[in-house]
Fold this protein.
Amino acid sequence: MRPERPQPTVLLELYRTMLLIRRFEERVYFLFLEGEIPGTLHQCQGQEAVATGVCDALEAGDWITSTHRPHGHALAKGVSPRAAMAELYGKETGCCRGRGGSMHLGDPDVGMLPAIAIVGGGNTVVTGLGLAFKLGRTGQVAACFFGEGATNEGAFHEGLNFAAVQQLPVVFVCENNLYGASTPWERVSLVPSVAARAGAYGVTAQVVDGMDVVAVRRAASTAVAAARAGQGPTLLECATYRFVGHSRSDARGYRSRVEEDEWRLRDPIVGLRHQLLEEGAADEAAFDAVGGEVDAVLDDAVEFARSSPDPDPAELLADAYA
Amino acid sequence: MPTPETPRGTRRLTIAEALREAVAEEMRRDESVFLIGEDIGIEGGFGGAFGVYLGLTDEFGHERIVDTPISEKAIAGAAVGAALMGFRPIADMQYSDFLFECMDELVNQAAKMRLMSGGRLSVPLVMRAPVGASVRGAQHGQSPESYFAHVPGLKVVCVSDAYHAKGLLKSAVRDDNPVLFFEHKLLYGTKGREQAGGLDLTAEVPEEEYLFPIGQAVVKRAGGDVTLVATHVSLYRCLAVADELSAAAGIECEVIDPLTLLPLDTETLWASVRKTGRLVIVHEDTLTGGWGAEVAARAADECLYALEAPIKRVAALDVPIPYAPVLEQAVVPSVERIETAVREVCA
């Protein structure tokens, strides 16, 4: 039996979120090259379906932890584009008041911790979120995003085992984009699949097509429901690909253009668009409208960030302690 | 049992008993307080490596006393995450040496979430950890508190007697910041171990509830000739030296227990140094980069002109803690080394 297909309105909303992430990243990269945005960037073009599908399966009161590549997670969980953009600009109006930056985007109001830019760092912290929800009987769920590279960190194993023995309401979401920075997965693991590692801890795991937002959303919904029902953690291994370099200076010499082209044919945004057109669920006018709306949101976000005040260094010392 | 000399409403407790009372009181007072660590609530187990939690499971059950795998990163990470969600975990390291297993969770996560979130989140956790050389060798005998006193976002407490241990642990639980809470292994019991000088380590603890504030030092012994600043076992050695020098040489030592290393109560310290003009800092942490260096540097900065002699530090030698008792005692600050330093600055 084919799984139930989401309603067209839901699909169009998923499309909109993915497009927002894609165009946010493109915009941010341009502004970075122009010298408007300081620091460095880790972009997620190509991986939008994972963030979007998982966050759509969560409730507003659920929480996520993120990584050094957090822009997509933040937008998908509901951080406002204004607050995210202002944070990248290092402005007081940013979601972390300019103290966090690109690698620490987060917003407690929408259930996102400041992103944790230490690889695997979120994999233990998320167990504390789960423990709090379990002890407080709140019915909330925590989802933890991490890359396949993080699964070679001790934190991955300690976090997964602890969540399992405590049956915590946690979903571990591995974004397997095949490369830890430049290092291919097969160079650092004899086990071909991350999901296989979950079995060592008695945790249910599933490999998901991370380029298909509907598949991700479906798998995540099952995992979230199990977590909420007290059945403990699930590990989702989402097979995906980052279309761009690891960070700003990455010329991607460690992988072939042929491989990149193959993955680009599976672009999650283009794929969903084709599906919706084929199904007659949306027409070109609808996509144009979504694109125009997204561009307007980003225009507004950039203008907001540009015109926002810098943080006041005089207030800085007050922020280290409660 | 109260003796006839004990004032009404006080008992003499060990540090372990006082800490247990503090934990139980805070858990009764606040549902958000829970314990997490290894071997803390297992039936027939140890109640933590040094028995501080013995019996607490009977009252609070296994839900609020979370026994973990041997996974220090998970312990600290879970404490950080739960604290971010509004709980007040008291996490337990069996030995402070194991804190290095979870430096990321403590230094990168606990200490930084406040700032990284633009002040929107806080991490009200306590991490208890026993320090000190006790003939267990290099990996169960360090005093690593200085590592943490270097980290903005953390608070660092060192307790040396039952009264302050209880009052400070209750304050630490209520503090909205991550607090590293260091206890010395030789100071838990009724009678200090031989290496600690066979001290009576019980102290009067009121029956009624009290708090002792983080960031406040105490003058353990008043004196006008030289200021001694010390924690844990070194504190008791300083007190012994003070008695000895008072009787033998007429040198009156003012002995201060800083209790909190971060933030440091410089008001109390400098008031003493300005009075005595001499400063000796003693700790079981190693010399180079130990917290005594920070105290010395700040004393030089803030009250140099009150000083009549160079600042002295007496610390563990810059080697890993060795096993053989004769070697271990040669590494940690001895009564003799402290006395020599005090005599030098008073000469």
